[in-house]
Amino acid sequence: MAAMARIFPGVFLICIILPLLASAFKDHLPEVQLANESDKNDVPIHINNVAQLSEMGEKIIKALKKKAKEQHDLDHDLIEESQPEEEAAPVTPTPVPVDPTPTPNPVPVDPTTTPNPVPGNQTPTNVPEGYPGATRAPVTIGYGGAPLTPNPSDPQTQVPVQPAPQQDLPTPEEIKEHRKRDGLQMGFYDETCPNAEKIIKEGMIRAFGNDSSIAAPIPRLLLHDCFVNGCDASLFLDQTPSGARVEKLANSNGRTVRGFDLIDEIKAELEAECPDIVSCTDLLVYLSRDAFVVSGVPHYDVPGGRRDGMESLEANVLGNLPLPDFTVDMLIDLFKKKGLNEEDLVVLIGAHSIGVAHCFSFLYRLDNPQKAALVDPRLAGVMKFTCTSPMSTLAFDTTTQYKMDSIYYKQLAGKRGLLESDVLLNEDPRTRDYIQKFGEDENGWFNKLGKAMNKLASIQVLTGDQGQIRKQCRAVN
Ligand code: HEM
């Protein structure tokens, strides 16, 4: 059996393999055998037995393989020599660099609005209106395949959040350049966060829909922020790096300023849409405009570009905020220090057309006969009736509490204003005429209101590289 096992491969080689090889390589065989001396030596001339024959077959095959390899190498060298330099690129494909960091500004892609793209076609797809990069390329997953559009019914293609393609977003250099621009400008966020004003406006509309009293506190926050150390959102800070007491703890802010939760809510939406772009200060300024708009004031444009301050000190509040027992001299002086004239003063206190005051802010007037003389007796009756505690509240304008209108100026002229400081403006020749005028010309007042608000919102602003863009309005970064 052992002999048979040795003989069989030999016979197989002689009868089948060698004839086949000989015919297949008949052109090469002589060359192989004569190619070099070593090959000649390797092939025995005398074949004494079958084993030798089998051995020889193996050697021939080896020689053929060796020759074929040499031929292949030679062909390859020749091909390379005939190629131009640049095409002789490395054979191993270079992996496509994949940026492991996610592209900033992940914009949720609404799969229902993205049409199926033609594979390889880079024409823009529909993205929800207003999103940055409305001309973005189809969403692709991985490399080398046809663009894959998320399909809500197919779990394979569901892509919950896709980063917007880089080319549709401003580059870091563009953003830096944008931030460096000095001063304020209209459409400041057009390139870097085109939806910013829309998000803010919708935030106000939503909040107002749930609670109509939310509009009034917002412009008041603006006044209280801008008059203390300039418009820098320092009023929003819960603490300072120094650990000192912050502005919002001051008596004149204290329990009567509100609206911080709405600011936090909208700021979070802005950060989700375009991180580190929209300052808390600009948020407050736009939101104040929108608070007026939902209350009936026609839209007016507001420039952006303010940056946020890094400190907030209770000590800065004293002497910088108007109080309800201020005289007209004190009011005019304070407003002048902030760059606002008498007309601006009267225009802006028209904001008291909406909102409420706590009883401790006005009830004292009835205790002093001289002051009480400036309170309409009917209003005095309402004050006494309503103020069961100093913390009770009364609307400035009891007829249209949620509406910005010129009724409040008429009420001031008739001594029916809640605040002593407001009523005094009707007693002073420097300011009385404005009260009369705006009481009769609501549109004229609206027109002045936008301008005066923009003046207020420009006090000592931080721009360019100053301050920072806070991630959260309550804390410095
Ligand atoms: C001129 C000097 C001003 C004084 C003395 C003054 C004083 C006050 C006082 C005492 C309150 C009521 C606080 C409380 O008891 O809850 C109040 C509320 C209010 N102030 Fe003024 N204010 C002045 C100017 C302004 C300006 C310029 C604006 C807006 C641009 C403004 C907007 C408001 C609003 C909307 C409220 C109602 C807030 C709410 O309902 O929560 N005030 N102000």
TrEMBL record:
Disulfide bonds join C193-C274, C226-C231, C280-C473, C359-C387. The keyword Signal applies. Residues 1-24 form the signal peptide. Keywords: Calcium, Disulfide bond, Glycoprotein, Heme, Iron, Metal-binding, Oxidoreductase, Peroxidase, Signal. Its EC number is 1.11.1.7. InterPro entries: Haem_peroxidase, Haem_peroxidase_sf, Peroxidase_pln, Peroxidases_heam-ligand_BS, Secretory_peroxidase. Residues 183-477 form the Plant heme peroxidase family profile domain. This is peroxidase. Residues 81-177 are annotated as: Disordered. GO terms for molecular function: heme binding; lactoperoxidase activity; metal ion binding. Belongs to the peroxidase family. Ascorbate peroxidase subfamily. Residues 92-118 have a biased composition (Pro residues). It catalyses: 2 a phenolic donor + H2O2 = 2 a phenolic radical donor + 2 H2O. The keyword Glycosyltransferase does not apply. Residues 119-128, 154-170 have a biased composition (Low complexity). It is an enzyme of class 1 (oxidoreductase). It comes from Anisodus acutangulus. The record marks R220 as: Transition state stabilizer.
